[in-house]
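Budget justification note: compute hours in this period were largely spent on complex prediction jobs such as the one shown. Inputs:
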Amino acid sequence: MYRIPILQMGQTLLVTIQVDMEDQMALALQDDLANKISTSGAKGVLIDISALEIVDSFVGRMLAGISGISRILDATTVVVGMQPAVAITLVELGLSLQGVRTALNVERGMELLAQSGKESELVVHR
Amino acid sequence: MSSTVETLQGTLPVRTEEDIVASRQKVRALTQQLKFSLVDQTKMITAASELSRNTVVHGGGGQMRWEVLEQGLKRGLRLHFEDTGPGIPDVQLALTDGWTSGGGMGLGLPGSKRLVHEFDLQSTPGRGTQVSITRWK
Amino acid sequence: MTQQSQAVLGLLAQHEEQIVSEWLQEAGAASSRLTDAQRRTMQGEATEIVRTARAALEAGADPEDFRAAPWAPLREVLEGLSRSRAAQGQSAGDTSVFVLAFKRPMFLALQRNLADPKAQLEGVWTLSLLVDRMAQWTVTTYQETREDIIQRQQQDLLELSTPVIKLWEGVLAVPMIGTLDSSRTQMVMETLLEKIVETGSTLAIIDITGVPTVDTLVAQHLLKTVSAIRLMGAECVISGIRPQIAQTIVHLGIDLEGIASKATLADALSLALRQRGYVITRTA
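Corresponding output:
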């Protein structure tokens, strides 16, 4: 089965979903990301869904899942590029994607990750 | 009306995960042929995806039957998701919203219902389930 | 081909020019209200009609069955005529009057060239039938064209009445005016979301100063719009909520779920600018 590739750019993992995913593929992605965050120590995950014309409840739950998992592993996930028709449909479906951070595009997503990176820095004074 | 749609009805097996993807692609092709707006296409395909998944996961596999409808100048698409699985014991509960509250049955039925113009659910425990959805152009 | 059609065909073939010029006279081409260009157009139309009618009759077409294939070229000419008149805003009556004016010169031609009264009568019948069909065809096409135009105008009106305006870099505003209904709100939502992606704006301000009442349905639509905007990664503020509407919202028990609202569009813009780190100073 085709596994969606995860690119690493410094402290950020980048995923671009361009295929109409089978459920297994989505689950595999969630798995792979969890592992990769752990092994790479990445602080940010950027998931580009600008090519996705359909986001149903399964994919929605996968995105929410990755968000939650990354948070626990001390990383932030941002989902970028949601198409208007997809947003309208998700709202109608009633999927709130609570807890999933989103941005309009990769550029803004990276800005968001940089910001949250600074926020979560522990400053230790002596 | 001079445009013709390839076939006015047909069926597609919905038994495996690959079939769920295939059903999405088929509904996309049909809604495009019917010249649905992009948002309407998205709603119909998403609803089909939800219901296909239910058929595979909860219904033990079944089929998707589609028909192109013509009512005077109105054109529409009706999809039937049919299985001979265990059926839904509590239809009322199944139609209750419960994404976050944990209520409902997580079958995505209330959500799918909101995506279409007409929604019909028939289910007999032990015999099977049939969900029909319709969107008009 | 029937004898009568033969007779009509014969007339068209031999006296085309005379028939066309008498037709134009009958149709008021001599009127001083017409420009030269319009007169030339009318002449062209008349000639085309005569030619295609002739061709159809030569092919043995029966006026009774106007939808038959040989009449297609004539039908197309009539449709063209009708569409251009409809687009110019002329009435259905004017359009069919032009076509019906074809009868008189033809009757005159029949009279002049057919000696036998019985043949004349039958010729008149065939001709009448044909011209009536032609006039009917123009009227039908005219109506369809007008309906198309009306629909397009309605669409334009819908779009114009809720423009999406770029207020500032990254800030869009939608002034909603008039009663909000389901289809209108949906259209605004779709347009707004697309513009957000196009312009990369991170804030959309929906101003409802011009909205007289808000009911549960409208409030739900607004909420859905805000949710969709947030899902995409932008923010939305509603401004211009009048006191009466605020009361209605509370009264209806609608929970605006943490939607930021500002009294005026100006306030919303001011907040947006401050959040983006702008400081506005005034010189002198």
